[in-house]
Amino acid sequence: MDIAAILSILDATIRLSTPLLLACLAGMYSERAGVFDIGLEGKMLAAAFAAGAVAAISGSAWLGLMAGMAVSLSTALLQGVAAITLKGNQLIAGVAINMLAAGLTTFLGQTWFGQGGRTPPLGDGGRFTPITLPFADELQNVPILGPIYSELISGHYILVYVAFIMVAVTAFVLYRTRFGLRLRAVGENPKAVDTAGISVVLLRYQAVIITGLLCGLAGAYFSIAQGSGFGNNMTAGKGYIALAALIFAKWKPVPAMFTCLLFGFLDALQIRLQGARLYDVEIPVQAIQALPYLLTVILLAGFIGKAVGPKAGGVPYTKER
Amino acid sequence: MSARRPIPRWADVALLPAINLTLAFLVSGLVVLLVGENPFHAIQVIIYGAFGYGEGVGYTLYYATNFIFTGLAVAVAAHAGLFNIGGDGQAYVAGLGAIVVALALDQTHWLLAMPLAVIAAGAMGGAWAFIPGWLQAKRGSHVVITTIMFNFIAAALMVYMVNRVLKPASSMAPESATIDVGGRVPQLRQFFSFFGYSPVNLSIVIAILALIGVYILVWHTKFGYAMRVLGANPTASRYAGISNSRMIMITMTISGALAGMVAINEVMGVQNRLVLDFVAGAGFVGIAVALMGRNHPIGIALAAILFGALYQGGQELQFVIPGITREMIVVIQALVILFTGAMEGLFRPALERAFMTFSPEQKADAVAVSTAKTES
Question: What residues in A contact B30, CB-CB < 8 Å?
């Protein structure tokens, strides 16, 4: 394999891991605050549809992005009402959100646009275009570093850069701010937070809102950056991979970035390996597809370290009985 | 805090689900209105499509058969306090057991093939659920996450198995060889012409037996009692000398085996071969069915028929009203899960208050309860 092939796989890795990373960070906020979120997939899918639909109608990628974030946010709030205010089962709420998004996006897509659940293809301005970083073209011919800079680092959609910046932002917010301290505390011991006079409900809603906004970015990436328009079930289980990455990264921002890059790399590899052979044996593509899920199961079983989530996760907080 | 008293049992098992279900339908009606169609016309079409003629009834029962199995799978796990979202994967993998037996015994009689296939499908589905059960019992990994992961692993595994192992060399389509004679479960239309061309088959008898079996297992055996104790209070069950980890593993295996029965209905009853994604989300419908049916076989049977009717009526709907696609059914399903499962607390307080206001007896009880609390 030559350097160009390796670069193209790594380039695809970055592109494919971006939505995972955004969704994974999204899940981190609500799970750190003690709200388990298996509805990442649904929120992303709803956002992807809203972004695709609005971008198609308005012709503006930015309006599409905002619509995606708004829809994802309202979905997150719906889930929040069920899980926080009504103290319902958080897992069931997530399952319902995923199904609701899967059904509604296809249904509304078909009724509104009549193209088998797809939104019309986006023209110029309707989707984000890759950004060329300064000096990318000039440096292209510098050996080794040139191609890495111009192909790997430059030339991505704005959301890609946002995702990686969000890793630093999330790490800062979680570990260096008062809000982050409280957020982590409310996921470990809500009673203590309550005793300190801080509203558990408010904190959890704030976390859920951030989750919704980030999922909106992730979903919009599918339909108006990576793709040009929304397609049926576009997120294809990526929300669950993001959930797996979150567990794999043990709910920490920087490990989350590396896990998402790893899962993105597996995805890129899997596309590349269609029909490839190793010592005369064809490698089943399905084995690589299943690898993130398998790794998560093995990690959860404690065979490669222990993944312990926030202690109060999944339990609605009741002030008093 | 104000005096509160749980609502009477009949309201809990019948009234509250009915209110939540109505709410789900109301919201669905709003969605239909949103796209400019008449919700009442839509309901009419669904009801006629599902129950109006023999073939429709047959289809309704065929879908309901699947949902009874997956609903029971979710319910059995729920009694032990486990949330099995892996019904889809378990049913899918069970298809392997069913097809292997069906193809092997193709030249014999269905009376021989069916029981053996039931065992094989149950064993495969059970095994696929046993692993998450074992992981939860012995390694402490949450069964919800592992069953989600196992759904995806099953999907990858089955694509491989169908394409590389089961697909006949002469065929291009990604599906196994077709069952010819003995491996097929007889269709009910062979006995009753009423069912038209619908695919309802003798698997429905297994479904009914499963309903009765689960009822006996959960409420009339020592094992079922231990299961419910575990679900209600794991600490108490451990102090009572019940092995929690053993219970979790056995319960998950039973749950997976029940989900696996979907393969009998689909593979041997209808498709007559193993096709990709034959489960088509029945495992997730099972969650809605179990939630609505309050984990009780009678409730599950009714809820399964309701969802079967929605599925069949939904098919009809997209022919009659092209503006509404069958995904509308997925929306209704999701709303049912949302309102009866996650937002169950929406009407409970109001209902509790209503019962207090209108029944002096309840009120007296509630006051007594709260007085006792303050005094102690």
Answer: none
Contacts of A200 (CB under 8 A, 6+ apart): A186, A190, A193, A194, A317, A319
* Pairwise CB contact (< 8 Å): B327 & A243: no
d(CA B289, CA A97): 17
Contacts of B160 in chain A (CB under 8 A): 284, 286-287
Q: Is A141 exposed, middle or buried (0-12, 13-18, 19+ CB in 10 A)?
A: exposed
Q: For chains A and B, count residue pairs whose Cβ atoms are closer than 8 Å.
A: 145
Q: Is A38 near chain B, with CB under 8 Å? A: yes
Query: Phi/psi at A286 (nearest 5 deg)?
Result: -60, -30
Question: ipTM of the predicted structure?
Answer: 0.86
Q: How far apart are CA A108 and CA A118, in angstroms?
A: 10
Contacts of A80 in chain B (CB under 8 A): none
**Looking at CA atoms only, how far is residue A147 from chain B in angstroms?**
35
Q: Considering CB atoms only, which of B291, B325, B334 is closest to A99? A: B334
| One pLDDT digit (tens) per residue for chain A, 321 residues | 677 788 888 888 999 999 999 999 999 999 999 898 889 999 999 999 999 999 988 888 899 999 999 999 999 999 999 988 888 888 889 989 999 999 999 888 888 887 777 888 877 777 887 877 777 677 777 777 777 777 777 778 888 999 999 999 999 999 999 999 999 999 888 888 888 888 899 999 999 999 999 999 999 999 988 888 888 888 888 998 898 889 888 899 999 999 999 989 888 888 777 666 666 666 778 888 888 888 888 888 887 777 777 887 778 888 765
Sign of the alpha-carbon dihedral angle for B294, B297, B300, B305: negative
C-alpha B311/C-alpha A43 separation (Å) is: 25
Question: Nearest Cα to B74, choosing from B249, B288, B248?
Answer: B288
Q: What is the largest CA-CA distance in chain A?
A: 70
